[in-house]
Design goal:
The chain is α/β, with parallel strands linked by helices. It contains 12 helices and 12 strands. It folds into 3 domains: 92 residues, Arc Repressor Mutant, subunit A (Orthogonal Bundle); 96 residues, D-Maltodextrin-Binding Protein, domain 2; 92 residues, Periplasmic binding protein-like II (D-Maltodextrin-Binding Protein, domain 2, 3-Layer(aba) Sandwich). α1 crosses α3. The longest helix is centred in the first third of the chain and has 30 residues.
């Protein structure tokens, strides 16, 4: 198609509206513009094409034979566009919001709040995909990722949801009453680490230590890590927000805390988002503010 020879879309929309209503006032109301604006666009279209589309000899405007010919074409064209737009909007509204997140975040933060979302937005279905792996955000795939870090990742949009530092915790029974532990000493204790992550190994390495042979390291789903820590089965790296209640109650001891401003972020693609995704993201942010 030679787009340079294509009439302006505004003029075609005005002509299509007039062809449907056969009245400039009603055409203006349909497009939410004045009837004078419709008349101006109609004249502009005739000038562009060099063809008389309207017969102005009578009391009211009527279409010429050329005008009727173009009217049939634009009504077919805009009708097809309208049908496609409606189909796309409908299919997008019916598709569940696909969320990628770690199982620890799902179990400790999101799942307790989901009944409130279901109550407020029963028309929006969710797919929760618990995985520590980074995923590609693309249309038709994962809509939202909840990820921990400093934010500012390239190629995506990220908004801070929950600012909370990483901490090292263990149950008092495992520590035997000792609260002043060096990283090297902690490396001799059993550790619990979420499957697919290396947070414990990385933290010890950053502090000049490594889990010693025979100390024991257990990899398990993130939603089970805190249960194991509370039961005294090992030391772990987690975020303070998930264990604040345990620390206050004395069920866990905070041994180290990372002094930074990292946290969980809402990550979305840079492309336009469906209304259901926007609703879910807005709900997440409101839940974080009210926590």
């Amino acid at each position: 198609m030679d787009w340079l020879r294509f009439p302006p879309l505004a003029s075609l929309r005005a002509f299509a509206a007039f062809a449907e209503k056969r009245n400039v006032v009603q055409a203006g109301e349909a497009l939410n513009v004045s009837h004078a604006a419709i008349s101006q666009q109609l004249r502009a279209l005739e000038t562009f094409l060099g063809v008389a589309l309207l017969d102005r000899s009578g009391k009211s405007l009527t279409l010429t034979a050329d005008g009727e010919h173009l009217a049939r074409a634009v009504q077919l064209g805009f009708g097809a566009i309208g049908a496609a737009v409606s189909d796309l909007a409908q299919s997008g509204s019916e598709r569940p919001v696909h969320v990628s997140l770690t199982s620890s975040f799902a179990a400790s933060w999101l799942m307790p709040r989901l009944p409130a979302f279901r109550s407020e937005h029963s028309d929006i279905d969710l797919v929760l995909d618990p995985s520590p792996e980074l995923v590609e955000l693309r249309p038709g795939g994962v809509d939202v990722a909840i990820r921990y870090g400093a934010g500012g990742w390239p190629g995506v949009q990220s908004q801070m949801l929950l600012q909370t530092p990483m901490v090292i915790v263990a149950a008092p029974g495992l520590l035997g009453g000792k609260t002043d532990w060096t990283p090297a000493e902690l490396a001799r204790l059993p550790w619990l680490e979420e499957v697919g992550t290396t947070e414990a190994t990385a933290w010890l390495a950053e502090h000049g230590a490594a889990i010693e042979p025979g100390a024991g390291r257990t990899n398990l789903p993130g939603n089970l890590v805190l249960e194991g820590v509370r039961a005294g089965q090992g030391v772990t790296v987690t975020v303070r927000h998930f264990v604040e209640g345990d620390i206050r109650a004395g069920r866990l001891i905070e041994l180290y805390a990372e002094p930074d401003d990292r946290g969980y972020h809402i990550v979305t693609s840079q492309s336009p988002q469906r209304q259901a995704v926007k609703t879910f993201v807005a709900w997440l942010k409101r839940q974080a503010r009210e926590a």
